[in-house]
Design a protein that fits this description.
Layout (H helix, E strand, L loop, with lengths): L1 E3 L2 E4 L2 E9 L6 E9 L12 E2 L2 E6 L4 E4 L12 E5 L2 E5 L11 E9 L3 E10 L3 E3 L19 E4 L6 E2 L5 E6 L1 E4 L7 E7 L2 E8 L10 H5 L10 E9 L3 E4 L4 E2 L4 E8 L6 E7 L2 E8 L8 H4 E8 L2 E15 L6 E10 L4 E2 L5 E2 L2 E6 L3 E5 L5 E2 L5 E5 L2 E5 L13 E9 L1 H6 L9 E3 L14 E3 L3 E4 L25 E6 L13
Parallel strand pairs: 37-39
Antiparallel strand pairs: 1-2, 3-4, 5-6, 6-7, 8-9, 9-10, 10-36, 10-39, 11-35, 11-38, 12-13, 13-15, 14-32, 15-31, 16-17, 17-18, 18-19, 19-27, 19-28, 20-27, 21-22, 22-23, 23-24, 25-26, 26-27, 29-30, 30-31, 33-34, 34-35
């Protein structure tokens, strides 16, 4: 024990010895209990301020805080430090009015490499999780997209009986490309991840612009009972040169091979793992170019979908130089060439796909009754699991507690810089307020309940290090965040033992 701040003789380290032995060569002991608290205190005196919050009252067992003298204005696309690592993130939605109030959520920053839990609300009986109370499910706060729903129904005290003890439903929704002139596609959350479900033909988009839809023979992947992961969807301008190809995912690279003397025709070559798989000529700088003139696309058979466009790049312009040729790209799109099968009766751990339509997938636990008992970790489907409590008493007055969660791994510095596209649950305010001087948010990945530590890995080279940005948007260090569910459900952060 030692003095820690204002606390005198505070025990900060304790170890319980089960036994001890004196040996001929060495002595040994068995320890079966260890306790340690920090010798560096965190001050919680009244009126101590942490960012926007200050400590209002302190008793022997309770702390209350408020934002006295710090009015917080919620406006679009803001990242507001509330207290410590806790922030408020607001949406970048197109319309904010009485019918479309501003959406926002609370998040905690996590940057240390390791495996974390994205945890949903805690249940002790029948329960339904969706994107509002389970941050692991896919949710796009800017466009209010996300339909995943999972329901548990308990019978016989602790059983999720097959076939309907666990049911899951998800529906595809219309979403625009980041490069909006291409039109729309269907996005769907599946097993707590974001997927492409098909290209859309929209009457409000000129036919010539819907080049990804028009050039795909089988444009609706979900109708073919498959989905593809969305790898890239970006409208950030960047410059590529004849010596610096555009690096894509899954081993693809797009290169400028030559530009004609007038700077109108650009000869492009697509390689995969170093081998040429496609070449095309586009004309982004000619007079009155069409979308077809300015868009490179690559299509191939993906699973049961024939001639599906999996890569597209929109070229804003191109120039022939004395030393090298260059072009500006302001739209990139890529989906995986490896489909995820969603055929009826396909099984994922305890769950199986029950029905598939052109826009909806349902799942159940047919032939897989799940028994909920103390201190269990049950794989439900993919990265989605159920964890039960290790509570001392389980009876009618103290039913077993359990929750849904998804594991997320941060692998070194690179993971903190490139967060995955998982959006948290949202809350709403009724009006957009005037802008405040807060940092615009970096993309946020929600993560909760750290489970294991991982040593920091060496940062990998960024995939597009050879592509030089033509212009940069104001940016900030990307973060991984633990999402709390504001006014909807509570989330508790805990380390797995």
């Amino acid at each position: 024990k030692k003095d820690v701040g204002d606390s005198k003789d505070l025990v900060i380290i304790a170890a319980h010895f089960k036994n001890a032995f004196r040996g001929a060569d060495q002595n040994l002991a068995t320890i079966d209990g260890i306790w340690q608290i920090s010798e560096v205190p965190t001050e919680v005196k009244v009126d101590t301020e942490y960012d926007k919050m200050r400590i209002a009252t302190v008793t022997s067992d309770t702390i209350t805080m408020d934002n006295k003298d710090n009015t917080v204005t919620l406006s679009k696309n803001k990242d507001i430090s509330l207290m410590g690592d806790v922030k408020i993130i607001t949406s970048d939605q197109d319309v904010v009015d009485d019918a479309n109030p501003l959406r926002y959520y609370i998040a905690k920053v996590v940057t240390e490499p390791g495996t974390y839990e994205l945890r949903g609300a805690v249940a002790d009986g029948d329960f339904t999780w969706n994107a509002q109370n389970f941050a692991g499910f896919y949710y796009d706060i800017d466009d209010d997209l996300g339909t995943e729903t999972l329901t548990t129904t308990i019978t016989e005290g602790n059983k999720l009986q097959e076939p309907n003890g666990v049911t899951y439903t998800t529906t595809a929704q219309k979403n625009d490309f980041d490069f909006e002139d291409w039109g729309y596609y269907n996005v769907i959350g599946f097993q707590a991840s974001k997927y492409f479900a098909g290209y859309l033909n929209d009457e409000n988009v000129p036919d010539e612009n819907e080049i990804l839809f028009r050039e795909s023979d089988d444009e609706n992947s979900l109708s073919d009972e498959q989905l593809e992961a969305i790898l890239m969807d970006d409208d950030t301008e960047m410059t590529v040169t004849s010596g610096t190809p555009l690096k894509l995912e899954e081993g693809y690279e797009l290169s400028i091979k030559s530009i004609d003397i007038d700077g109108n025709k650009v000869y492009l070559e697509l390689t995969k793992d170093g081998s040429v798989v496609d070449s095309k000529v586009i004309s982004p700088s000619k007079d009155n170019p069409t979308m077809a003139d300015k868009t490179y696309y690559y299509k191939k058979d993906v699973g049961d979908s024939k001639d599906l466009v999996i890569i597209a790049a929109h070229f804003k312009n191109a120039f022939r130089g004395a030393d090298q040729n260059l072009a500006t790209i302001d739209g990139i799109w890529q989906i995986s060439e490896v489909p995820t099968e969603v055929k009826a009766d396909t099984e994922y751990d305890k769950m199986r796909i029950a029905t598939v339509t052109s826009d909806t997938i349902t799942m159940d636990n047919k032939d897989n009754t799940v028994t909920l008992s103390k201190n269990k970790d049950i794989s439900l489907m993919g990265d989605v699991k159920i964890k039960t409590s290790d509570q001392d008493v389980v009876d009618d007055a103290n039913p077993l507690r359990y929750y849904l969660y998804k594991e997320v791994t941060l692998e070194g510095a690179e993971a903190a810089e490139q967060p995955a596209p998982v959006e948290p649950a949202k809350a709403e305010v009724t009006e957009e307020a005037a802008p405040v001087e807060e940092a615009a948010p970096a993309p946020v990945t929600v993560a909760e309940n750290k489970t294991t530590e991982a040593a920091p890995a060496a940062a990998e080279e960024k995939k597009n290090e050879t592509a030089e940005p033509a212009k940069t948007e104001p940016g900030f260090e990307s973060i991984f965040a633990i999402t709390g569910l504001l006014a909807v459900a509570y989330l508790v952060l805990g380390r797995r033992e």
